[in-house]
Amino acid sequence: MPQLPPFSHWFARQTDLTHKSILLSASAALVAVALVGLASQLTLTGYDLPIMVASMGAAAVLLFVVPSSKLSTPWAFAGGHLVSALIGVTCALWIPHIALATAVAVAGAILAMHYLRCLHPPGGAAALMAVLGGESIQSLGYQYVLTPVLLNVVIMLAVTLVYWRLAGINQQSTGHQQTLDHNWQRSDEEWLASTAPFDQNDLSRAISEMGTFIDISQQDLHEIYARALQQAHGQGFGDMHCAEIMSRPALSVQYGTELEEVWQLFEQHNIRGVPVVDNFQHVIGVVTVSNFVHLASDSADTPLPESHSMAERLARLRQRTPGFESDKAEVVGQIMNSPAITARQDERIADKIDLFNQHHIHHLPVVDDKRKLVGMLTREDIMAARASLKC
């Protein structure tokens, strides 16, 4: 039976706003809605009209709490309300079945706002009110678009722009004008990494410093960053295949190769890992320097004092144990990473770069259509290829 998420999950914190920012946004909404109500009441005195459409309340949340959102731009607010109100009135006048009229009004408002680039959720409420607002609204016909909708929009927008100006809110920018190219002069190793060079705490602090609610989760921001780097990788290599830049011939060892022999191979060829193959050259694993280091670091299984250096521990690990029994790893097959993560020689390099970061690997064996080893692709190979493309 699947477990339910913890109780706190349902009441997770939604924003990184300070208490000051929260109080300021609520106060701004109080003033704005009050002014809209008072001005509309004075203007519409003597008329049997509502002084305010309910969607103004929802709009206040967006305009004063999420001003950086594309849903909160002046055009989104004004256009979304007016277009939706126009569609709502049309549906109320021409579709006699009220349930159908409400459905068409909301759907039509969504379509219109999308294509007119003024998507604003409260606009759906403005369209709905034109259909369900009762006789006082339906008797107005298209005048509903002008009063109260346009009147409310003009007053609310004026107050909003004044508040944004006084609060120093720039709807289009966070204040940092440098281009991405200027901000991200990455080294080759940073460019290759598809994981963000920051953690959740860094992201939380950065969002808090902006002083506005960003309507996107931190996980989504990380995902966007990673996908943007993926796109950059793809554009850089195009349709270049693994076979074009892989190292060949590929060195390899077998399951029963002794650890000392593998270590000598590392030192002789100045490499950090080799694939492990069976008798048919099928890749069954990969052994790296990290495998040796991790095993040597495990002091629980070694009688050496903790004061012994890593070099001494590695030397003991590689030393063959006499006889037929041993309490430590003796051959490659006992310490290798298995199953092996591989790439086919006809696969695009851009599609394989992510594997290095997803699995925290440095070496990627390359195989043919029969799954036999034909080469090795490393981070250095990729960075060298990228450097040659930039020349």
How does this structure look, described?
The chain is elongated, with a radius of gyration of 32 Å. The longest helix is centred in the N-terminal third of the chain and has 25 residues, at 19-43. The protein has a three-stranded mixed β-sheet with strand order 1-2-3. The chain has a three-stranded mixed β-sheet with strand order 4-5-6. The chain has 391 residues and is mainly alpha-helical. Helix 3 (74-94) runs parallel beside helix 5 and helix 3 packs antiparallel against helix 7 (143-167). It contains 17 helices and six strands. It folds into three domains: 12-167, no CATH class; 184-237, no CATH class; 242-290 and 328-390, Roll (CBS-domain).
**Overall structural domain count:** 3
Give the N-to-C terminal Cα separation.
58 Å
The helix-strand sequence is: HHHHHHHHHHHHEHEEHHEHEEH
Percent of residues in helices comes to 40-55%
User: Largest sheet at a glance?
Assistant: 3 strands, mixed
Transmembrane segments: 21-43, 101-119, 140-164
Keywords: Membrane, Transmembrane, Transmembrane helix
InterPro entries: CBS_dom, CBS_dom_sf, HPP, TM_HPP
Domain CBS: 246-302, 336-391
Descriptive key words:
single chain, 391 residues, mainly alpha, CBS-domain, 3 domains, 3-stranded mixed sheet, 17 helices, elongated, CBS domain-containing protein, TM_HPP, transmembrane, CBS_dom_sf
